[in-house]
Amino acid sequence: MIRNIVHVHGGFVDGSGWQAVHDLLVTDGFRVAVVQNPTLSLAGDVATTHQVIDGLDGPCVLVGHSYGGVVISEAGTHPNVAALVYIAAFAPDKGESVNTLIADPPPGAPVPPILPPVNGFLFLDRDKFAASFAGDLPADQAAFMADSQVPWGLDALGGTVTEPAWRAKPSWYLVATDDRVIPPPAQHAMAQRAGATIAETPGSHSVYLSQPAAVADLIRQAAS
Hints:
Layout: E1 4-8, H1 19-27, E2 31-35, H2 42-54, E3 60-65, H3 68-75, E4 81-87, H4 98-101, E5 121-122, H5 129-133, H6 139-147, E6 152-153, H7 154-158, E7 171-176, H8 184-193, E8 197-201, H9 207-210, H10 212-223
Parallel strand pairs: 1-2, 1-3, 3-4, 4-7, 7-8
Antiparallel strand pairs: 5-6
Helix pairs in contact: 1-10, 2-3
């Protein structure tokens, strides 16, 4: 049983969204760390993640949500990473980035309301944030997330993976079946390509907030 869990958040949000999952795992006796990624560049976020992993006393399960899946795919080659868990996340292959994975959405697929970049940073349209990113959260919580967005750097979206960790390490993937940011068929396709153990749960892109028990359950599987 692996006792260390490391959480990596995605774009537009910070690590505080992991609190409910954190609390469930801590109650089970896990040592849980949450990476606060600057989301300025993939290289910077990988370095920040490695800094957290370096501070652990043994192997860990590395968990990523959304863009955090790109980070863990690159950072997960660290020797202290024993397993990967993708939560409604991008799971890129070598040479892929968020940009390449979202470049050609299938007809009819929901398109996230990303505003044009300003000074190298992206935000989601505040008025459309809830419907796209947090459709199953209380309205006041979704509104707060829209108002507290973290700027997402273009270098983070364009950062390409050099050697995806899922090619060498076991992975698990939680598909959020109501996701309107990463379409569920795309989630399934990436999970299958990675050879991940796949679970499904109803949930928006913010499934780590709305379904913390399902998220924690899959992490426990990976840890065992």
